[in-house]
Design a protein that fits this description.
CATH architecture of the largest domain: Alpha Horseshoe
Mean pLDDT: 91
Number of domains: 2
Strand content: under 5%
CATH class of the largest domain: Mainly Alpha
Radius of gyration: 20 Å
Distance between the termini: 50 Å
CATH topology of the largest domain: Serine Threonine Protein Phosphatase 5, Tetratricopeptide repeat
CATH superfamily of the largest domain: Tetratricopeptide repeat domain
Length: 313
């Protein structure tokens, strides 16, 4: 058993590393966040702080979903986290959501749906309504990846409405942007753009994930009404923000959006370069669903290529 001073030291170090993780998280520097959380988890475990371990593990799972760790490696690490979680149903609820997202991204549709159901059950058993609503960004995207657009909309709309009813703005800004993304996939551009406006108003200046997401999703709405200049401004702003993060999915989405604009404007060379960059980001993450939708050879075929590029991710 640890001496009291040793335990106190470990608790203090766990908190210090969590504070460091918060700074990196806000910058969408998920690789550095993961490193800090790994250190925090070590000290929390050494101190015997089970609740602290659980909270850090949930956060780590989110980093594995959003960060630069390739999907295959992230899945393996998620299973390790489940094994180490001492049977925590709270951890299981979060990690299974991440596993659903990563599995869907990697083309494992059956596994993705299995993890989604397991996650939903655990959230409902524990009454974790806010947590589940927040995680709909990943569960909704998992459903979009497996091609179930209707279910993706229902999932994100539930999360969106739940957060609105709670008066919660921070998570709402991101969920609204991703709900808009699903509506774009259904070509419901006016509804989608209205949601991006709500996301913009709710998002904090330092919330890079929301700031990138609403811009990237408003872009196809502007293209749909022929506003190429407005779409390009949004695309370049989204990409400038995304390039300062290590969120490969958002980076790929930003490149794909700008590629669509350039294709619509008749700039086939620029579109090809942006498409290639999007492919690199998606492949680095292990996203086998979005990458095939981006065909570099098709970018000169406007407007068909623009529609194809906007569906990427």
């Amino acid at each position: 058993m640890l001496a009291r001073s040793e335990a106190a030291n470990d608790i203090g170090l766990a908190r210090v590393w969590r504070l460091r993780a918060e700074l990196d998280w806000m910058a969408c520097a998920y690789g550095r966040t993961t490193e800090a959380l790994d250190r925090a988890l070590y000290h929390a475990h050494h101190a015997g702080e089970v609740r602290e371990e659980s909270a850090i593990t949930v956060w780590l799972a989110a980093c594995l979903a959003l960060g630069p760790t390739p999907a295959s490696g992230a899945v393996a690490r998620c299973h390790e986290l489940l094994d180490q979680s001492r049977g925590s149903r709270r951890v299981e609820a979060a990690v299974c959501t991440v596993l659903a997202y990563l599995s869907a991204m990697a083309g494992a549709d059956v596994e993705a749906r299995t993890y989604l159901e397991r996650s939903r059950q655990r959230h409902e058993e524990l009454g974790l309504t806010f947590s589940r609503a927040h995680w709909t960004v990943l569960s909704g995207m998992a459903l979009l990846y497996v091609g179930d657009v209707e279910a993706a909309e229902a999932e994100l709309r539930w999360g969106y409405q739940t957060l609105r009813d709670m008066g919660e703005r921070a998570a709402l800004s991101t969920v609204a942007a991703y709900l808009a993304r699903v509506l774009v996939a259904e070509r419901r551009y006016a509804e989608a753009e209205a949601l991006t406006v709500e996301s913009e108003h709710a998002a904090a200046v330092g919330d890079l994930a929301s700031q990138i997401a609403w811009r990237g999703t408003r872009l196809p709405c502007r293209l749909a009404v022929g506003d190429i200049t407005g779409a390009e401004d949004l695309g370049r702003a989204a990409l400038a923000l995304a390039e300062n993060t290590d969120d490969l999915e958002l980076l790929g989405y930003a490149h794909a959006g700008l590629a669509a604009v350039l294709a619509a404007a008749g700039d086939s060379h620029g579109a090809a370069a942006e498409t290639s960059a999007a492919l690199s980001a998606y492949r680095a993450k292990g996203d086998v669903v979005s990458a095939p939708m981006l065909d570099v050879s098709a970018v000169a075929e406007v407007p068909t290529s623009a529609e194809t590029l906007l569906q990427g991710g």
